[in-house]
Each structure stands twice: as structure tokens, then as C-alpha cells.
Amino acid sequence: MQIAYIGMGGNIPSTAGPAEATLVAAVQRLGSLGRIVAASSLYSTEPVGYADQPRFVNAVVAIETGLSARQVLESLLCIERAFGRDRSAGIKDGPRTLDLDLLLLGDEVVHESGLELPHPRIAERAFVLAPLAEIAPDLVIVTQGKSVKELLQRLTSDKTRNAVLPLHSDQWRAGGSGDIGARADARHADD
Q1: Which residues form the 7,8-dihydro-6-hydroxymethylpterin-pyrophosphokinase domain (predicted)?
Q2: Residue 22 near residue 8 (C-beta atoms within 8 A)
């Protein structure tokens, strides 16, 4: 078993509702990959790349899983599609209902077609590092040789600091009916 760190984001409504509701519903789906061991706060972030779009809502979830990196990636793509994401359409870095990125899987380093671990832009993205630092500040990114906390501290511009603002931290984790981790543990107790 390894810990998979999944970056989550969205900025337009899905069938589940606004971006916040989509992330809550997606976390419940992520429980099918293994046991959810941590979930960050939700963060309101400015778009990166294509700027003419709504702010994003981002988070990071940690899941203990026995799945391979490829299996996790395929599952994430399936969950994205279930919430209306079409990766073949739209603008690069444009609006999306749901974006799920496999950031890390244990200390695996992978360079395959369509799959690179750790995520190749993890050290450049405050919208990933801020929520990841909340749940795993001392985690060392093997390809960077630095902890998540150290990488986040390197992103020091005022624009970057202002781009990432925590939202209702405890409400989304509860998803309206208790702690996500507790629900995941209860599901796996029947296995």
C-alpha cells in the first residue's frame, strides 16, 4: 500500500452543482480507490495560463491505495468524465468542471506516455502546494529534494500569496454527513 496524493480543482458547475459541490462529490468517488487518510481545506485560486475565466476551487486528498499509478490515473480520468469533463474539448488551461491530477504515489518516479510522477509542475503551482502543505508539509518531493513546505516558501510573490485563499475548511470535508475518512473507514470495514 502507498499514499496517492490527488490534486483536485474546478471552476464551472457540474451535474453535482458549483465547483465546491463537485469537489465534495468527487472526494466521495475517490474513496473507491482506497482509504482516504487526509483532505486539505478548499482553496480559492486564480486561474493559471488562461486568465479570462472564474477563480478555481482546489484541494488535495491523500488516499492509501494498492493500485498502480496507471490504475489510479485511469480511475481519475473516469471520475472526471462522470462529472462532465471532456479533456479533448475546450481551451488549454481553460474552464473545467473537474480536474484530478495524480501528484505523487509514494516515492515512485515514473516517466511514461501520459503519466509522469511526481507531477512535473508540482513545484511551480501554489494552488497544489498550499493544500498539499496543509496535509503533508514535511513530505519530500523526490525529484526536487525539498519538502512541500520548502517548495511553497519559494513561491513568494505577492500575486502568488494572494492567489491562494482557504475557503470553508471543515464544511467540505464533512460533505454534509460526517468525516470523509470515517466514512471511508466504515466502507472498508465491510471488505
Answers
A1: 92-103
A2: no
Q: How many residues does the chain have?
A: 191
- CB–CB of 90/49 below 8 Å? no
CATH number of 34's domain: 3.30.70.560
- Look up 85 and say whether it is catalytic: yes
Exactly one of 29, 35, 70, 96 is catalytic; which is it? 96
Across residues 87-91, what is the average pLDDT? 71
Its domain, for residue 121, covers 2-166
> For the segment 113-166, what is each residue's pLDDT rounded down to a tens digit?
999 999 999 999 999 999 999 999 999 999 999 999 999 988 865 455 545 555
Residue 96 a catalytic site member: yes
Say which of 52, 81, 85, 183 is annotated catalytic.
85
Q: What is the pTM of this model?
A: 0.84
* Mean pLDDT, all residues of the chain: 83
The active-site residue out of 29, 55, 93, 101 is: 101
99 counts as catalytic: yes
Q: Is residue 57 part of a domain?
A: yes
Q: CA nearest 26: which of 69, 77, 91, 67?
A: 77
